[in-house]
Amino acid sequence: MPLLYLLVSYLTLLVSGPAPRATVYVFLADTCPISQAATLPLRELHGQYAAQGVRFVGVFPAADATPAALAAFAKTYQLPFPLQADPGHRLTRQLQARVTPEAVVLGPDGRAVLYRGRLNDAYAALGQHRSVTRRHELADALADVVAGRPVAVPRTEPVGCFIE
Asked: How far apart are the first and last CA of the chain?
């Protein structure tokens, strides 16, 4: 079943119709508590923006990211978008991701980086969770994208677990 889920997710990604307005690559790690905490806002963003032409892809750069582990993560955290392993760090290097979670938003051409950074300011630093999240930079960037505006803040510093 887990392999079937990943295969269907991948095929859906390949044949999902017209080019998206943007693709959000979110680098995640199943063992990173900050990545785990990011799943709720990611589900919310997907619910808000997928119908508006924004594609989401979860990328797992860990060497031990297996199809079964990705399927378990998707099930545990109820992620409605495809997940892919990147154990050789090909996509991680291409998009210059350094931590999990980190978002990279590409334009419709699949090359132009519209936004790079954190999802929000829930963490001030590693181990320093804020009691109130005040800034939602990824949501703001996606709002700009679907409105056809340039992203007002195209880069923020992500806080998370380092990609090894």
From this structure: 29
Please report, for residues 9, 111, 116, the alpha-carbon distance to residue 160 in angstroms, rounded to integers and kept in the order given. Answer: 26, 24, 14
Q: Which of 49, 34, 19 is nearest to 141 (CA)?
A: 49
Average pLDDT, the chain: 91
**Residue 109 has which token pair?**
């051409």
Q: Binning pLDDT at 50, 70 and 90, where does residue 87 land?
A: very high
pLDDT (average), residues 68-93: 96
Q: CA 74, CA 91: separation in Å to the nearest integer? A: 20
Cβ-contact 139, 121 below 8 angstroms: no
DSSP tag of 89: -
For the segment 74-103, the average pLDDT, to the nearest whole number, is: 97
